[in-house]
Description:
It comes from Nocardioides panacisoli. The protein has 259 residues and is α/β, with parallel strands linked by helices. It has helices at 43-49, 80-86, 102-106, 108-112, 119-132, 136-139, 152-165, 182-195, 208-214, 238-243, 248-254; strands spanning 5-14, 17-27, 32-36, 60-68, 71-72, 87-90, 170-174, 200-204, 217-223, 230-237.
Amino acid sequence: MAKGIDVSNLNIYYGDFLAVEDVNMSIRARTVTAFIGPSGCGKSTFLRSLNRMHEVIPGARVEGKIVVDGQDLYGAGVDPVAVRRQIGMVFQRPNPFPTMSIYDNVVAGNRLNSRKMSKSQTDDIVEKSLRGANLWTEVKDRLNKPGMGLSGGQQQRLCIARAIAVEPQILLMDEPCSALDPISTAAIEDLIHQLKNDYTIAIVTHNMQQAARVSDFTGFFNLKATGEPGHLVELNTTKTMFAKPDNPATEDYISGRFG
Ligand SMILES: Nc1ncnc2c1ncn2[C@@H]1O[C@H](COP(=O)(O)OP(=O)(O)OP(=O)(O)O)[C@@H](O)[C@H]1O
């Protein structure tokens, strides 16, 4: 079941360096929220904090709260591995497991979660996830071939199939189309539209047209000055952000005056 995310007073550090300061926002269930902003303003850092991937970097930590379904993801006793199972992630470069078949790639997460599954259960998950990622018809006759044998766009859809196979509530996407050609990009954007029926999606993109095409809400991050932490300037409906944003800095960025 898709869930919303409530972020309050979030500061994100790399060691002593405060990379992102005092983020407060709500991300609604079953919507797509895009994050835009100039390089280095902390979009990816913020996204990785949403499923506790940030802290895998030595010295990296957060202060503040991220609440999903009433639970603070950083609360005492919360298992970061369980958080990452609920909140899946798709990265910039497609990263199928190189030695695995298409089939094994899709269920790799389920097997890691050590759920015992029968062959027919596994077959069902593979088909459902590949259909969900709009890849089934292209690969159904070669499920035992290596995942690396697919095109870049197909590999990215395979990674999305792998992410949804464990039935997360939320999907995070960090520039999922930046390594793809325009046709594969269009396929992923169509898929994002379909996935929001079932998932809450947060996506970082450098491409403002893409933010305008795929998202319901857009958040603009910025830096006050070089070396200062990034912060959220404005989160609004995508329509408002691109037509008449509340903050002049948003308008300057969107109209290409800086960044
Ligand atoms: N592993 C790291 N260790 C230390 N500092 C980091 C690390 N990763 C990112 N940073 C710093 O954190 C800040 C935010 O970086 P981040 O990559 O989140 O920005 P971004 O907005 O996603 O940038 P881009 O659009 O260029 O990908 C930058 O100052 C960056 O140098």
